[in-house]
Amino acid sequence: MAFGTVLFAHAGADNAVDDFVTQARRARELGVSQVWVAQQFDHDAISLAGLIGAGVPGLEVGTSVVPFNPRHPLTLASQAQTAQAAAHGRFSLGLGLGAHDIEREAFGIAPPHTIARLREYLTILRSVFDTGSVDFHGAEFTASPAWPVTLAGGSPVPVYVAAMGPKALQVTGELADGTLPYLAGPRTIAEFIQPTIARAAEEAGRPSPRIVAFVPAQLSDDVRAARADAEEQLRFYATIPSYQKVIAREGIDNLADLAAIGDADAVRRKVQSYLDAGATDVVFSPLDRSRPDDALWALAGSL
């Protein structure tokens, strides 16, 4: 098992890329084994992950997550291989299915057939990364390039999907290396995510998938105030149907119940509940994003 943290940009940085690399270097010094960065409209997560991997030897780095729309899988495959070469084999590609409302507003698109697109997307990536070639003609994508598709030092690339629904987990188990659930509590992992993705992987003859649980976290002596902050930050997710299902499965009233909040012992107990449920890795998603959190990173490094 491994423990890591999500890195976030800080508004006061003179150079965002330098700041990310500095944060990653500090996290590594404190014992953190893996860091993850999310795609935003102001930075490219795959490029950033490659730069972090090149700048911080020994640190695993991944994207959580890059929505696969609107990038073509060949474009994304070349970006991922470049990051993998830069990171010398320590890069992991985390993909997301995207959100129609956000993509419609930002790009003017809202592609239907999300699960079919995911299956074809992963099929193309799998072919590029595993065989070094691709000749695919599907209903959603065509990938049949006349030029080489592999980069020296750029493969293999582990591929993960932020999958929580049954159809997405089925495809992920068949074609990817694991899932990256955020705000999926221990009961959801144990009773739904783990058995669903493990069964799909076994039926496809693939290795047991990783389940990298992303857990909101904050070390604090003032638990009441920290929980209030968590409730405010996580309120948006409670409006999304997939997270409403998580709330129902967990039997909780508030998504803040899934966060790791309190002193070090309380956070360790929460982490252990995710591991007991079947998570192979736990990644802290800091609730306090105003500054680098040395204390939380040190805790992750000590687990």
UniProtKB/TrEMBL annotation:
It holds the Pfam family Bac_luciferase. Gene3D superfamilies: Luciferase-like domain. Keywords: Oxidoreductase. Residues 1-272 form the Luciferase-like domain. GO terms for molecular function: oxidoreductase activity, acting on paired donors, with incorporation or reduction of molecular oxygen. InterPro entries: F420-G6PD/mer (IPR050564), Lucif-like_OxRdtase_MSMEG_4879 (IPR019910), Luciferase-like_dom (IPR011251), Luciferase-like_sf (IPR036661). It is an enzyme of class 1 (oxidoreductase). Its EC number is 1.2.-.-. This is F420-dependent oxidoreductase, MSMEG_4879 family. It comes from Mycolicibacterium aurum (Mycobacterium aurum). The lineage of its organism: Bacteria, Bacillati, Actinomycetota, Actinomycetes, Mycobacteriales.
